[in-house]
Amino acid sequence: MGALMQLLSARLGVATGKHLAELCRQEYPPWATRALWVMTELALVGADIQEVIGSAIAIKILSGGAIPLWGGVVITALDCFIFLFLENYGVRKLEAFFAVLIATMAVSFAVMFGETKPSGKELLIGLVVPKLSSKTIKQAVGIVGCIIMPHNVFLHSALVQSRKIDTNKKSRVLEAVYYYNIESILALIVSFFINICVTTVFAKGFYGSKQADSIGLENAGQYLQEKYGTAFFPILYIWAVGLLASRQSSTITGTYAGQFVMGGFLNLRLKKWLRAMITRSFAIIPTMIVALFFDTEDPTMDILNEALNVLQSIQIPFALIPLITLVSKEQIMGSFVIGPITKVISWIVTVFLMLINGYLILSFYITDVRGALLRSSLCVVLVVYLAFIVYLIVRNTSLYSRLCSSTSKSS
User: Fold this and answer.
1) Is the pLDDT of residue 344 over 90?
2) Are 301 and 56 in contact (CB under 8 A)?
């Protein structure tokens, strides 16, 4: 599903020469544009809190506890200036920096994977025939949210424009789309491999154990050290290096996405450093609050982490519906408009994601929401949420045109 959405996003960016947020501003009325911006910013803030806290935890581990969590947050907050510095020397330098981070992350987690010596047979069975307990629906939905990140859909349509492509020549656009597709698939394969390594390490090491209920980002490395580490194999620090590399790449990606999202939706023409400061502030302020008032070894931090994953997941429709709508419009895409089969598959994926989100929200409402006032307030929020989704879906249909026509005639 992630691959499909990345390919559609790249296709949109290459064929139109504009990114998704810019096209949304042109396609939708101002109120809908601002609402989409707010939803995307919420997803960005949720992701950034996770990434910055993860980086801060890694820095705390690597410093032997000398740098407190809030200190790690401050250090991580400054990484946007690294990104600006590298971008001044060209996008290729920035891409090379990301490649180093991703390679570091992949090697770190691969080393841990090799050390745990998991069963290849069990791993393949789990991939082909996955099993999911009803008690883990929230975690499963959260995983969807943190893999198909809404802001990354916007970002990918912008990143493809770093190459100069003559959009007037169909052969050049087709060639660019072909190579971007290969690039996206390779990137997702690497991401998939890293996720497999991390999941397998913890499944092999702690499934069914007493420690399983208390493992979080901070004490995970210590548990791994006790289980697999030696004086000559410091798995604690290998874990911390991998964690730092993964979170740094994600925080810089989030900052980059925030600039395109803000500039595209709001049509702001600000200097890069100012836009970076504004988009960074949206996430750093709540992250600093989390760092100061939450104990990372407390289970509350993991509950917060799950909630932030779910927050991103419920924002997915506000990235995917505009994306599918735009790539399906011949007026926008020209000869590069998607075919009926791709369109149907894309809508099936989007509806599936909305259904699992709906299941999660319903479960939360039934089991966790207490009190008439809270339930009533949540109902109002859900009605507005669903109404906006319905609006985005039907806006470009003949039904919506007929309704608008009949309304204007009656008025």
Assistant:
1) yes
2) no
